[in-house]
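User: Can you help me understand a structure? I only have the sequence.
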Amino acid sequence: MSDFIKATEAEKEALEKYLLQFLNIEKRYPLLPGISNKHAVANLFGLDEEELDKLRQHFTQNTKEAALEMLKDDEVVDWVNELPFQPNDTIIGFGDSSTDDLQGWFEILREILSIAVPDAEFTFINAGVAHNTTSEALRRMHHDVLSHEPDWVITSLGSYDAMRLSFAPKRTLHPLSETWENLSTIEDAIGTVTDNPPIWISPTPVIPGLLEEMELFDFDIQDADLDQIRQIITGKKGYIVDPKGQRLGNPPEAWYYLSDGINPSLSGHVNTVRALLYTLVTSEEKKGTEMAKPDDLE
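Assistant: Let's start by predicting it. Here is the structure, written out as tokens:
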């Protein structure tokens, strides 16, 4: 058997600084033959097992350090102590890239609760898949979410519904009516497995210009489109985290984003966790509101 092609130093740098935190192929392709073979998975990236472990541990260490830093804040500690979660609860993060991120908001939340309330013995399930639209997420919801019978579902979706492809810039990938239907179905489905209210995290803006510079992407996302999705989310029952999408600055600040201008940096994810904790302990659960049909949203 011939030797595998090793990643170049430039490719390793790209994996460390951007790609690898979203390439969780074991989760995306759980039935792929050999997916449980760490040697085979590492080779797909042009790495050996030790290199893959080292890179992934780098992100894990980042989340631990971010959690420990947040827990130095007495206000954060107070919020953690007042959370509505109960011992042995199963908590699922259901979303796209920001959830799937190895150093994302869900992983920081996991570390915070594991450190601050270890006796609670929460079960955490990261059901985020990079670049998912609401349709793609809905399609896998039974296997990835409902089958676990979670006590809490934190949903962070919508950004990729708003993509405007480079060859079809006059329309979003999903019409607003489809996003509305998908999020409503997700809301109803959550209610079949838990009496606890859904938790919704709103999409954040994209920094103009940065996304255009990414060779990996051939789409644009406009804040006007995202704002319509935020309006839909704001009408949902449950807890609404950052309904106006301003947790990464208003206007958004590059410090809180990766180089693509869409995915949050570690600092950006910390802001999301703060907004999440704050919402859960200071906001009353919303019962949902009657709102205009999607075609009437402006």
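Now, to help you interpret it: Strands lie at 90-95, 123-128, 152-156, 163-165, 199-201, 219-221, 237-241, 286-287. The chain has a mean pLDDT of 92. Let me know which part you'd like to focus on.
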